């Protein structure tokens, strides 16, 4: 009996594996077509100054809706693109689209763009980025590139060369998802990092989880000591916003302020944020949805 159930468990596992591989293969084909047809697009999530509560920049986030599968999570299709050699083409297209949008914004707003772990180890990355900037007219000082600790860890030496070149070109570097990877605190000292982005898994639980609050506060103290800018991700509650602000966090993003939205929604978002700042409209947490 035990043997039979063992065998059937194995068969279930096998069927399940096949389904996963099939699904991924199908998604890969769909993604290839979507990239060719420019159906993978960039949305923008506002980043606010926690002191003034004004919008100071936007993070570009990739979005893809497949006809049959519906909305596919960027973590999933970015990983497929990395594994199947499509990431360079996908990322180049998204970056260009993001720059073209960002040049239309008031020029004190920055664009924050996620760099995949494959791109971070591409020696041509700095040149490609500079070319896209000069072709679209976005100045390098308005760009922040977000990299993760995990991506740096894959090859810290090549990451250093590339990040140094980007920094020399006046582009800012943010360490994304801070605290979730195999962090080496020496990265913060040795690499040209300007900003630490505190991962949503810590911030979102701050209000009711002492450990998460302690981690966030420690990261803020550490960053302050190193002279680094701090951004908290995933701010959903006013309580969390207030706590972050009190603890000295500089900037933040989250559903409390607004989720990622298409480029054409940005002018209205900026106008509403301006009204909030000038006291003509209610602030976040009081029912206003940016
Ligand atoms: P990330 O760079 O850490 O981006 C932040 C993620 O948190 C985004 O998820 C955003 O929509 C989500 N988020 C922001 N505020 C809140 C909040 O208050 N509550 C909740 N529940 N979520 C919030 P998204 O867009 O699904 O992206 C997931 C990840 O996929 C990103 O994490 C990034 O690692 C990757 N990604 C997205 N777009 C790109 C891209 O263009 N290139 C690369 N290489 N990676 C990308
Ligand atoms: Mg990011
Ligand atoms: Mg992040
Ligand atoms: Mg994150």
UniProtKB/TrEMBL annotation:
<feature type="domain" description="EAL">
    <location>
        <begin position="24"/>
        <end position="274"/>
    </location>
</feature>
<protein>
    <recommendedName>
        <fullName>Diguanylate cyclase/phosphodiesterase</fullName>
    </recommendedName>
</protein>
């Amino acid at each position: 009996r035990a043997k039979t159930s063992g065998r059937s468990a194995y068969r279930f596992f096998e069927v399940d594996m096949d389904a996963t591989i099939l699904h991924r293969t199908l998604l890969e084909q769909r993604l290839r077509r979507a990239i060719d047809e420019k159906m993978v697009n960039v949305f923008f999530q506002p980043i606010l100054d926690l002191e003034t509560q004004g919008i100071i920049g936007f993070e570009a986030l990739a979005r893809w809706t497949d006809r049959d599968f519906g909305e596919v999570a960027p973590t999933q299709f970015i990983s497929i693109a990395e594994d199947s050699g499509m990431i360079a083409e996908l990322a180049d297209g998204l970056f260009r689209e993001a720059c073209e949008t960002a040049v239309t914004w008031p020029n004190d707003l920055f664009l924050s763009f996620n760099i995949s772990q494959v791109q971070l180890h591409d020696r041509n990355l700095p040149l490609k980025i500079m070319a896209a900037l000069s072709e679209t007219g976005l100045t390098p000082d308005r760009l922040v590139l977000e990299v993760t600790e995990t991506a740096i860890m894959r090859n810290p030496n090549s990451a250093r060369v590339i990040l140094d070149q980007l920094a020399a070109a006046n582009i800012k570097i943010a360490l994304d998802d801070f605290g979730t990877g195999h962090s080496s605190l020496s990265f913060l000292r040795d690499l040209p990092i300007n900003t630490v982005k505190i991962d949503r898994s810590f911030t979102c639980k701050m209000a009711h989880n002492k450990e998460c609050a302690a981690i966030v506060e420690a990261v803020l103290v550490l960053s302050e000591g190193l002279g680094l800018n701090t951004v908290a991700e995933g701010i959903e509650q006013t309580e969390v916003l207030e706590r972050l602000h009190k603890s000295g966090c500089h900037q933040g993003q989250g559903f409390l302020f607004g989720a990622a939205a298409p480029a054409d929604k940005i002018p209205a978002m900026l106008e509403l944020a301006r009204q909030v700042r000038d006291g003509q409209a209610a602030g976040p947490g009081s029912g206003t949805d940016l």
